[in-house]
Amino acid sequence: MGTASAQYPFGISAYFHGNPRVFPHKVEFLSFGPTSNEEFARMNLYPSSASTRTSKGCVGRICSLPDVGDFFWEKVPTPMLDMVENPMHLKNLSPKELKQLADDIRSELSFIMSKTQKPFKASLAVVELTIAIHHVFHAPIDKILWDVGEQAYAHKILTGRRSLMHTLRQKNGLSGFTSCSESEFDPFGAGHGCNSISAGLGMAVARDIKGKRDRVVTVISNGTTMAGQVYEAMSNAGYLDSNMVVILNDSRHSLHPKLEEGPKTPINAVSTTLSKLQSSKFFRKFREVAKGFTKRIGRGMYEWAAKVDEYARGMMGPLGSTLFEELGLYYIGPVDGHNIEDLICVLHEVASLDSMGPVLVHVITKEDQEVADNQKSEILNENQEAGSFNSGSLPCSTRPQTYNDCFVEALVMEAERDNEIVAVHAGMGIELSFQVFQEKFPDKFFDVGMAEQHAVTFSAGLSCGGLKPFCIIPSAFLQRAYDQIVHDVDRQRIPVRFVITSAGLVGSDGPTQCGAFDITFMSCLPNMIVMAPSDEVELVDMVATAAQIDDRPVCFRYPRGAIVKMNNSTCSGVPIEIGKGRVLIEGKDIALLGYGSMVQNCLKAQSLLSKLGIEVTVADARFCKPLDIKLVRQLCENHSFLITVEEGSIGGFGSHVAQFISLDGQLDRKIKWRPIVLPDNYIEHASPKEQLALAGLTGHHIAATALSLLGRTREALLLMC
């Protein structure tokens, strides 16, 4: 590996370009100068000393050291990390220096975590693995894909984004996930997990068709192995037999507590030696020669030898390792994910094989891996002096009550009255709120992880068995189970109660986990009841309403974040009449018809407009389907202007209102209608308030729309100043 750096070009210049609203710091590097490899001549790298040019022509300078400012002045020294500005600088570092680099990166991540209160735990576990990958492979020519964005922060630090890590998940800052628009070192965006093998296989096949020789590396976690797409991709990879490396980052987590308590995959000298043997060129060639020899002897001998090989490798490997072999991937492992020398040895052997087909390297890591003791004490001292703290350590009683908290309390009350109620949860991890229900009803709570399709059909089966399932899935994750919702639930009118969490804009998680589309794709289903609460009181009532519906499916959505009224006591829910909205404030000049959480912003707009002498009616639709047509007709007949407001995409609640008022002839009369929905583009990560402003959904935006309808354009413009 010491000569690898000689393959890279020299004399590298860098240019900033891209959409500054999406990511103002994207960097593309073009190389100049002679090179022995045509592909490396086109390679993009972050230079050690280079001028930079923004899209406006401003010249700056790229440096590995973070900007000196208030954020970084107390930082623990990281001398080795300060010397590394791009992956090329890892190539000639000694094992000792690489270990020091790992300590520095872990220290850096811990420091940033303490300051920004962002979760970096998953990335702390893969620091050594990230270093080993970049030490062996040649990104961005070699493609490195990550399933989970939270594991890629060390990758971001090593690929030129260190100075911007403090802007993670902030407006105009770094994304919390890998992003093609952010860096050329991110060949594919990490979304909800489980996509990296499929995308990586596509890149590998495209490479083979084009006759290229770059390598493809995908990193998956044991959390994403709950998703079926992972196994679909592995099976196809085994069939196509294209060269690619799949690294399973096994942090030894399980959804099943009994498995957590069971025997762990051992990491010792024997397992390490066997992993190195499995990955060695000699062993692989010997195995291929043996296969060819037994084939020539006869089919019976070949099948017998294959069984012996499978049995022997199953004996050497941990439980379940033969599953990957059955799917067509050559299994290597387990490997200690915190031993850089072992990681480099195995990955180097894997990278050196030109015709190996798909390989899975099983790496064992610990998410609680800490920084070096001397750095740890310095970080603790600085955090105490700076008065920083981790909000995750706060007791539940001191944090704001969220919609999740309110929902769980309501569901617990319903479950205490009705022993047929069960809860099915899918998505990435269980929120703390749901653990309350799990602890109280351990036999009635089912967490299936990232298996949303299974969660929906499993819930349908529970319902057919006489139970009342509440299927709890975040809006963005529910998208993956739409086929099951249509065929396994709605078409059969099976009463499954869908609880759609994280609906609408989700702040720092940006477009990746934005719940923009559920109103649209759920309300177009013929048998689905679709509703949304305007506050926590309505949420409790809708839980009670859903519990009573037993002849068709129903769904309701609620947003992330704190509840409206900050009332810590949850009263028993009162079922709502299906398809019945309500009028909150009566006026005569203009009507605002809000859906879900946007009712609160309609009330804010009403307050602003009342100061200008405008009398506004504010109504809470409650239901998108069935629509309260009596309420809509009343609003149209008593007002000249109607505005519908929703935190969802085009085609949702406003479209249902438009369909009715057009068929009812209301648009042929005096009513003028305007919809306010999420814009037809993805809104990047920012704070919730900033995202609402970008989307045009704040109380001021609603009031400005009303003023424009009334012909008071100047006042509308002044309101937005």
UniProtKB/TrEMBL annotation:
UniProt keyword list: Isoprene biosynthesis, Magnesium, Metal-binding, Thiamine biosynthesis, Thiamine pyrophosphate, Transferase
Pathway participation: Metabolic intermediate biosynthesis; 1-deoxy-D-xylulose 5-phosphate biosynthesis; 1-deoxy-D-xylulose 5-phosphate from D-glyceraldehyde 3-phosphate and pyruvate: step 1/1
Enzyme class: transferase
GO BP terms in the entry: isopentenyl diphosphate biosynthetic process, methylerythritol 4-phosphate pathway; terpenoid biosynthetic process; thiamine biosynthetic process
GO molecular function, one term: metal ion binding
Domain Transketolase-like pyrimidine-binding: 401-566
InterPro entries for this protein: Dxylulose-5-P_synthase, THDP-binding, Transketo_C/PFOR_II, Transketolase-like_Pyr-bd, Transketolase_BS, Transketolase_C
Highest rank taxon of the organism: Eukaryota
Catalytic activity, EC: 2.2.1.7
Cofactor: Mg(2+); thiamine diphosphate
Oligomer and partners: Homodimer.
Protein family membership: Belongs to the transketolase family. DXPS subfamily.
HAMAP family: DXP_synth
Record protein name field: 1-deoxy-D-xylulose-5-phosphate synthase
